[in-house]
Amino acid sequence: xxxxxxxxxxxxxxxxxxxxxxxxxxxxxxxxxxxxxxxxxxxxxxxxxxxxxxxxxxxxxxxxxxxxxxxxxxxxxxxxxxxxxxxxxxxxxxxxxxxxxxxxxxxxxxxxxxxxxxxxxxxxxxxxxxx
Length: 131
Description:
This protein is an alpha+beta fold. The protein contains five helices and four strands. Strands 3-1-2-4 form a four-stranded mixed sheet.
């Protein structure tokens, strides 16, 4: 019986390889099709304005995550657009990692890039978007 199988495999070796390749391609295609269908079923993220007491504080502002609250605080900053250190020579956006390490008493605020450059400061390399 084993000899018959060996003779059969030798006689149809090329055909068996082609059949195996077709089977593997079909199996991979089926798997990719299933994955793409999973992506289609996901609901898109939507942001809704919540009205009433649900999700709102007494000040009628939405409840924010810590990161969002921190970014909103930076955006509503009355001190300036850019920050530098009294002890350094670089200026940053307030949300950059370098700016977050500056102590409050050492912060120097600038309203524009030109103002920071006139004070002798240069842009921080690790703060994306500064020129």
